[in-house]
Amino acid sequence: MPPPLHVAFLAGPEGSWRIDAIRAIAGPSLPEAPRLAVAEGPPAPAAGDCAWVLRATTSNMRYTYHAEAAALRARQESLSRPQATRAVLIPIRKTEAWWAMAQDERRAIMEEQSRHIGIGLDYLPAIARRLHHGRELGEPFDFLTWFEFAPEHEAAFDELLARLRATPEWDHVDREVEVRLTREG
């Protein structure tokens, strides 16, 4: 496994991604901003004149069995593909009840009941994604999920979200924001 990658999502006047929409799904939203910059690697940049900054890090696949990880690696496309000019950043915070459960209990809800990994596999390779962890950094969101896809796959992405949000796992989400983006330049 590669070492953790520190990532900062900076919403403000600059960045290669135009923010098309910010929508609260559960709990409060994030402030409006025109652009999003994604900065990888430490040190995390200062906030400057940003409306908001979300920081997180990549980590090991915590709830994934070996066969699932292999299937994800075999089908997952890389980020920053030229044709993937659409992106969605979804910050999520789970409930305290979620974190009070043992890892095997969370895995049972996430995969055995909700099929989170299985649903995601249905949309690969068209939709690339990377999960970032913020909880251990004291950030306001536990997870920052970054998705990239070509414009013609936006309907499939919407279907992916609808399927995931209809699962028992989403009963344990107390804050979720959806940030829709278009890469320009």
Oligomeric state of the chains present here = single chain
Number of strands: 8
Shape: globular
- As a whole number of angstroms, the C-alpha radius of gyration is 16 Å
CATH class of the domain at 60-183: Alpha Beta
**CATH fold node name of the domain at 60-183:** Alpha-Beta Plaits
Strand content: 25-35%
Order of helices and strands: EEEEHEHHHEEHE
Helix content: 10-25%
Biggest beta sheet summary:
8 strands, antiparallel
Strand order of the largest sheet: 4-1-3-2-8-5-7-6
Unreliable spans are none
Class computed from helices, strands and strand pairing = alpha+beta
Report the CATH architecture of the domain at 60-183. Answer: 2-Layer Sandwich
Explain what you see.
By secondary structure, the protein is of the alpha+beta class. The chain has a domain at 60-183: Alpha-Beta Plaits (2-Layer Sandwich). Helices cover 24% and strands 34% of the residues. It is built from five helices and eight strands, in the order E-E-E-E-H-E-H-H-H-E-E-H-E. It has helices spanning 66-75, 96-100, 103-113, 116-121, 154-165; strands at residues 6-12, 17-26, 35-40, 52-57, 86-94, 128-133, 143-149, 173-183. Strands 4-1-3-2-8-5-7-6 form an eight-stranded antiparallel beta sheet. Strand 2 and strand 3 form a beta hairpin. The radius of gyration is 16 Å and the shape is globular. It starts with 5 loop residues before the first strand and ends with a strand. The relative contact order is 0.25.
